[in-house]
Amino acid sequence: MSTTPTVLAAELAQAWADIQRYHPELPDLAAPESLIGESSSACGAELSFERLLHEAVHGIAAARGVRDTSRAGRYHNRRFLAIAEEMGLDHPEEPHPSSGFSLVSLNPEAKRRYRQTAERLQRALKAHTAATAADTKRSFRGPAARHGSSGGGVRVKAVCDCGRNVRVVPSVLAQAPIVCGGCGKAFRIPEVVAAAG
């Protein structure tokens, strides 16, 4: 089995650490591998350094207790925009009708600051894509993969012991635990726990 997902997870963690050097209030990335299975986010962007910086905006918003989205996380509001600007992201003048200010891009200063990080992550993403493409030719991954679903299915609610919850594709959660930054416990899918008991 290829170690490419492990290598990519390590590169994602390193890129996140590079962002933290400039933004120390950014919480640690609990499960970088959870981003690998996702082909898109609310902003509709594939995994890239720009997407990672977008996710870091959400991380800082969470650390500050700022509600930066609405409409089940799809609409990115002006509070998201303010933090995005702090982190070196430009935006369109007008919000998108359904996703708000989610379509951000690196400004010239951020491109210079993170050039090496972005290049390193891009190389890891290309290697991962090549390995994944070769793997899918040899194996059956089910109907969700054939229809372009990220991570193999629909997102469901996962909870932790302190009552926080996240929406996650079950196959992504099965790859490795996603740990709550509040209580330190792993998120779990309640239906699976109930069915197992």
Q: How are the strands of the largest sheet arranged?
A: 1-2
Q: Unreliable runs, pLDDT <50, ≥5 residues?
A: 39-44, 136-153, 192-197
Helix content class: 40-55%
Count, helices: 9
Largest sheet: 2 strands, antiparallel
User: Which secondary-structure class do the elements indicate?
Assistant: mainly alpha
Oligomer: single chain
H/E element string? HHHEEHEEHHHEEHH
Radius of gyration over C-alpha positions, nearest whole angstrom? 17 Å
For the record, give the distance between the C-alpha atoms at the N and C termini, rounded to a whole number: 33 Å
Which geometry do the CA atoms define? Answer: globular
Chain-wise SSE layout:
Blueprint: H1 4-22, H2 33-36, H3 49-64, E1 69-70, E2 75-76, H4 78-86, E3 89-90, E4 105-106, H5 108-113, H6 115-138, H7 143-146, E5 156-159, E6 165-168, H8 170-175, H9 190-196
Antiparallel strand pairs: 1-2, 3-4, 5-6
Helix pairs in contact: 1-3, 1-6, 3-4
In words, what does this structure look like?
This protein is mainly α. The chain is built from nine helices and six strands. The chain has helices at 4-22, 33-36, 49-64, 78-86, 108-113, 115-138, 143-146, 170-175, 190-196; strands spanning 69-70, 75-76, 89-90, 105-106, 156-159, 165-168. The strands form three sheets. The chain has a two-stranded antiparallel sheet with strand order 1-2. β5 and β6 form a beta hairpin. α3 crosses α4. Mean pLDDT is 77; it is low at 39-44, 136-153 and 192-197.
